[in-house]
Amino acid sequence: MARPLHRGVSGGGRLSGNIQDYLEDSQMKIKSDKENSDKISKTSSDHVSLSLRNPFQFLFSDNLSSKQDSIENGFVLSDPFAPANSRNRHMLTLLLLKLSLVVIVILGLSISLLWTLSLTPASRSPVIRGYRRLQEQLVSDLWDIGELSLGTTRFKESEFCPLEFENFVPCFNVTENLELGLTEGKEFDRRCGPMSKQNCLILAPPKYKIPHRWPTGRDVIWIDNVKITAQEVLSSGSLTKRMMMLDEDQISFSFASSMVDDNIEDYSHQIAEMIGLRNESYLVQAGVRTVLDIGCGYGSLGAHLFPKHLLTMCIANYESSGSQVEIALERGLPALVGSFASKQLPLPSLSFDMIHSAWDGVEWDKKDGIYLIEVDRVLRPGGYFVWTSPFANTPASVRDKENLKKWEFVRNIAKDLCWDLLSQQDKTVVWKKPSKKNCYASRKHGSGPLICKEGRDVESPYYHPLEACIGGTRSRRWIPIEERASWPSRATLSSKELAVHGVLPDDFMEDNINWKSTVRDYWSLLSPLIFSDHPKRPGDEDPIPPNYMVRNVLDMNAHFGGFNSALLDARKSVWVMNVVPTSGVNHLPLILDRGFVGVLHDWCEAFPTYPRTYDMVHADGLLSLQSVKQSRCSMLDLFYEIDRLLRPEGWVILRDTTSLIESARAIASKLKWEARVVEIESNNDEKLLVCQKPLIRSQANSL
């Protein structure tokens, strides 16, 4: 059972007091804050350019007195840390305290262990359980003290990365993989090691601009925000890539363009008709909610389907320039760097209602069809595989013997997987995965891949080697898409569905209620900051937060996906990448069954995406989870990774124990974030840390 989220937080509402007075009072302090900031900037780097649009400077002022703490919407705004009178004395005290505590802990645990072993068998079990809880708490406390004691020495060395790190994606090094002799797609595999981390702050490009808000930002991006050349834009050849135009310093994307023969609107309409529907708007009624787009071009299909309540996640290989994933994310669309050349995707079986592949470069006819077997694993029963390829059974491909051979191979593998070929038009083919399992038993002996044995049919693999067998058939989640509730009812799982995941309905309901209240508080807390450069006039109502002020959110510890659900209930036009840490309880199958997108991830490794790709990073209880489970990384490593993922002027919201939040704030200040600890009314054990990352560009003559 997951712990109740945000218990004790009061309901939504407006911030107390007059915002105009608050802003005027805050602006009086900006001058002194700016002078201090200028001093820091001069000593660190002459090329640091803080954005003038940083609204958190009105809220996060280090000069505020503790007498000015106020309760707002259930949150008590507390003062930032004040520096110690003597740094050396503070460091020495912490070091001595740490050493003393270690000695005491070792002696105490040794004596308590001997005492525990001397207990009678009848009383030993409950005592040992309490002993283990004590050990976990001590590990957490030691980690807190270790991070604090290193804060003023280790954290002050946070420097800016070299310019070549501008688009750095750890764990994906094609050049190094090729030098190791890896070919046949394995050069795109993810390989994390000690050298995969960056211990510096990645700067934004010299001409980086804050992205447009939605829906404008979905269709228009700044060309200097991504690594792509004008030649790459003009020479893009795939169906989805051709849906864009270069216009001075911007790239515009069009769903229907007269400059090309095909367009996304007609293409998606064609897919719906091939399934037997009137148009793509009826896909939701047919049980389709989530789509996995393999080699998505630049996300035009997902952008077109998003307003129709279809959530499309792009997955594509790492590319050093002209990246499909980077540009899709810059448009605010779901995307991940990923390759299944040799490893399974970090997704549970039976995850998506539709899988789409168009001109993606995947050699589907290689390795005995193992790539199609992986597609089958993540495709839900009754789901659709849409394949657009020059190798499809067209008159042109029939005349080419090599293409005809590839088409025959793909068609035969699909038949062995029990897929039903629904329709074929031009170069597009649509298959439907069986809703029942009886087809697998009725196949001829020795034809096609076998059913995975129990030990090889892993529900949620984390980059396991590809399996040449049919997976997911043993899962209790084998439910055809036509038997699931259509969207948006799917987001609220029935008691029967919750039982499959081992979750009690009361726990699920309480989680939803708590998150709805929390999202109201988050939005009320952040919305005045959005309008801080346009304060309201006396007598006006408090401003309503815009729906599009955040386009995408990375939830680093998603639990049941309650944060995602509450954002949608509040009618925020935002999607969430729900991340389930490998060190915690795996609720990712439940999250995906709710119609959301997500992925498994080890937060001691780099997340598979490009820098500056999320508007908000959120984590509830992640620091506690990492403090107990951590062995390979520190809190500082985690914060470097968050900084890499976060867009300039993006927000971070962390909720955790008081001691860990205080440690986190010390790190945040060293990363040049505007940070403030926010106390939660009626909950003294936990606090919020709310931060904003500044816009810091790399040095260039064009600045």
UniProtKB/TrEMBL annotation:
The keyword Metal-binding does not apply. The keyword Glycosyltransferase does not apply. Gene3D superfamilies: Vaccinia Virus protein VP39. GO terms for biological process: methylation. Keywords: Glycoprotein, Membrane, Methyltransferase, Signal-anchor, Transferase, Transmembrane, Transmembrane helix. GO terms for cellular component: cytoplasm; endomembrane system; membrane. Pfam families: Methyltransf_29. Belongs to the methyltransferase superfamily. PANTHER family: PECTIN METHYLTRANSFERASE QUA2-RELATED (PTHR10108:SF899), SAM-DEPENDENT METHYLTRANSFERASE (PTHR10108). This is Methyltransferase. The lineage of its organism: Eukaryota, Viridiplantae, Streptophyta, Embryophyta, Tracheophyta.
